[in-house]
Amino acid sequence: MYTLSSKLKLTAIIFMIVGAIGLIYGFIAAPETVEEVKEMMASEHHGEGHAAEETAKINVEQLPGKNVATQNIEGYESETAHADEAHAEAGHGEEASHEDEHYEHILHQLQNKPWAALYVAAFFFFMISLGVLAFYAIQYAAQAGWSPVLFRVMEAITAYLLPGGIIVFVILVLSGLHMNHLFIWMDPEVVAHDEIIQNKTAYLNVPFFLIRAAIYLGGWAFFRHLLRKNSIRQDEATDDVWFKKNFKLAAGFLVFFIVTESMMSWDWIMSLDPHWFSTLFGWFVFASLFVSGITTIAIISIYLKSRGYLEFVNDSHIHDLAKFMFGISIFWTYLWFSQFMLIWYSNIPEEVVYFIQRIEDYQLPFFGMLITNFLFPVLLLMNSDYKRVNWFVVMTGVVILLGHYLNVYVLVMPATVGESWFIGIPEISAVLLFAGLFVYIVFNSLTKAPLLAKRNPFIKESKHYHY
Amino acid sequence: MASKVIHAIYNDDDLLLQAVKQVREARYHIGEIYCPFPVHGLDKAMGLAPTRLAITSFLYGLVGLSVAVAMMNFIMIEDWPQDIGGKPSFSFIENMPSFVPIMFELTVFFAAHLMVITFYMRSKLWPFKEAENPDVRTTDDVFLMEVDAANHNIDDLTNFLYDTGASEIKLIDNK
């Protein structure tokens, strides 16, 4: 049995408290009125003015003729900037209303900032446990012989699924109650002026959206609950009936999962940009959550092993997890690139704005992801010997997790806070808050059952697994 | 005096693995082992150095990547930077996404093919090469261990190999 050390518990609680305080500060510091935004912008005018100039310059270069009048450029600029918000009610010609509109736009972005920070972190930690559940179900359905010694670690990580899912759901409900502007299609004023969203309201409307979310979360939590229960029952059983039940459940879950995961990615992430769509988006999000989940399994297993709790886990198990981290990292990159390159290549305006915004405003995280999520794991985990060096796997794992946080960040932020993004107090605090909660729930769940699944038919093979 | 070797034939791979360990412990020198199929753990038991084929493959892959980058950069950017369907050909990086499929394929192509050729060269395999098979049965169902007789007592060595479970022991003049 694992006992939760008081040190770890205390660290997790401190993380939660510090994160909560930082997040509350983020909500308080967010401006409430346009006047406050003007004051804020005035106090940091230098930086802002410079940035604005730069974007204007870029746009000049992109326009067909070099001698385009400045007036036109401004018009072009604000049109692109406001395209998403669809504030069509203001007259386009008037300077003053333009300025007000601009400040209102910024106000919405700054008000969204702490919400988006909360949402990104909540979703990121939730998707880790979802990825682990998918991996766990695959191990069952594939009757893998190497992994049963890690089942209890995986089950513990999926313990975060329900609380984490409820938090995400609450954020979605609050969005539906217009507490924030994360999902612009939830704003009836925006929809009233936006024909593209109007055509999607059969799918994108708040009640249906929340019902769908409840179905996904309920289904996942239900499968997780049964899988875990049967796994514990198998420990005391006299035959393999619970194992067989879990085998069938896992297969059923995987079918349910791949459909709901895909729809979840449309609902929770793609609908942040309701004008844009991509067909491989579900797979892309899946790859991200899958690799984060596997990495977390590896990191937690190595931690527990270093504390002497998993003496039956050997380097070969770590080697296998590292191979998965390596392979799925490449898979993620493959999907990232496939999505990017197809849209970049055809350059169809209504699709390509998605990447133009990311490349112009989010250049560092957008391309930095390729280094953390692809180059780093590929170069460090290619060597067979390195995959057995535990600190190497942990180091690469931390970088992969950082990279996939950035991935979620770049998926969510451009649509919610636009060019006003920054990884500051609200963002870091939200990560701390959920990291603390995650660690607390996961390690608390580890104490609830023996760390070795006893009567699993593959447990002996797994204990002697050698690669 | 021509050197002599002993060919010990085993019928079972477990027996063979055990024999290899015993022979190495008794400090006899194993020249070669002929098997009809890969015996898991045989290389470790024999104490063979690990292969470096994977390292060569990685390097060949880098060569392939360099060839692709140099080729595309020269053709598409430096030599004749045409406007083809509005693709930006001012610099390599601007048009890079469209080169990636070629870069990837050439990396794999070089890594795979040059590694295979390296394998053939290192293991001296080619068409019309004369087969080096001391006993035809080793391609079907028996395992043959070749032990250097050198300056050991032939009788002692024979008895020793017999004890390890060899089903046939032959003394061979090595060419």
From TrEMBL, chain A:
The chain crosses the membrane at residues 12-30, 116-138, 159-186, 206-227, 247-269, 281-304, 324-344, 364-382, 389-409, 421-443. It comes from Christiangramia salexigens. It comes from the Bacteria. InterPro entries: MFS_trans_sf (IPR036259). Keywords: Membrane, Transmembrane, Transmembrane helix. Signal peptide: none annotated. This is Quinol:cytochrome C oxidoreductase.
Automatic annotation (TrEMBL), chain B:
The chain crosses the membrane at residues 53-76, 96-120. Keywords: Membrane, Transmembrane, Transmembrane helix. InterPro entries: ActD. The keyword Transmembrane helix applies. Pfam families: ActD. The keyword Membrane applies. This is Quinol:cytochrome C oxidoreductase. It comes from Christiangramia salexigens. The lineage of its organism: Bacteria, Pseudomonadati, Bacteroidota, Flavobacteriia, Flavobacteriales.
